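Anyone opening a protein record will find just a pair of labelled lines. A complete record is shown below as an example:
=====
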Amino acid sequence: MNGWRQGTAVAIFAITYALIGGRRWRILPLNRPAAALLGAVLMVAVGVMTPQQAYEAVDYDTIVLLLGMMLICAYLYLAGFFNWAAGEVLALAKTPQRLLLYVTLAAGLLSALLVNDTVCLILTPLVVAMIVRGKLPLLPYLLALATGANIGSAATLVGNPQNMIIGHMSHLPFLRFSAALLPASLAGTAIDYAVLRIGFRKVLREAVISPERAAAPALERGLFLKVCLVLAFVFAGFVAGLNLSWTALAGAALLMVWARRDTHEVLKLVDWHLLLFFSALFIVVEGLNRTGLPDRAYQEMRGLFGHSAAAQAWNLTWFSVAGSNLFSNVPFVLVAGKWIANFVHPELMWKVLALATTFAGNLTILGSVANIIVVESARDEIEVGFWDYARYGIPITVLATVAGTAVLLWMR
């Protein structure tokens, strides 16, 4: 690639990520999917890539896996599971402190099984309604939902998009990945709850849950049972080592046949914007990779990572936290993933990369899509400012990342 095209590719990458990472510019009011699509088109239009190379740059396994999990999640929504679960959590919680724990755990568990962005999209309106109905302070529970979803999603290869990409790039077995990341996520969840519990101790101590407001909405049990059985089949396939993407899609297709619901209703619940966003993002990042700049950057920094597995793990951790917040976690994984084979213990480094880029999402409001979904979905009830989030997100990220990395090193 000649110098002009290299410079153009870098410029397109920079503009695309400025549009993705910040607020919409007045001169170019594009949301994240539109900005990524613009970057992908420009990479082809200026000759950095051919159309065929752009098609080949898309990781269709990741897109198919996201689609399959979103479809399964849509059937849970149609069964009324999320609304029912929100009501049940409020009914079971006897104190605001216990409710905070339940919200944190529920967000983490559902995100590990499904996809954190989708879980937050569906759960946030329900959590807001639940907390308002219980006349409780909203901020601690919104933070518990966002941070709990981010941390819990690190536990499996299907918990978030960057883990899905890592699964396909690393070829790590589903069960081996979760055997290491699940304990690390549990440690992070405990820290998450402790920081929020201590930080909001006065507010929670003064709050009271009214029992008469705790009635749970109805659950369509027949459809819910079918979804549970399909999820069990899907996760059995994951554990057995079957292809993640097509196992998830097979489960979604089975539900479409078995549930006997209007599939138009189901397909409307898929986040097509997110699928477009990641498809275009693959092309933009591949355009940057073709310049050779990421490889040269790694060669320059290689000595800074150290030579032992422990030193490389800690240094990759903090480098990933910084990189994920500067460039967003998915594009950072797409670039950094090409470096992992050069480390002393590649399998450990894949796990560190998954943990660090996921936990990094809790640092600020802009750290992850899940955070933005939560605060934007709740904006009619509460305005969450940058510091409102960061004063809790920063200690949660630092403490949980340290604990999680220590767990990974202990279990290697």
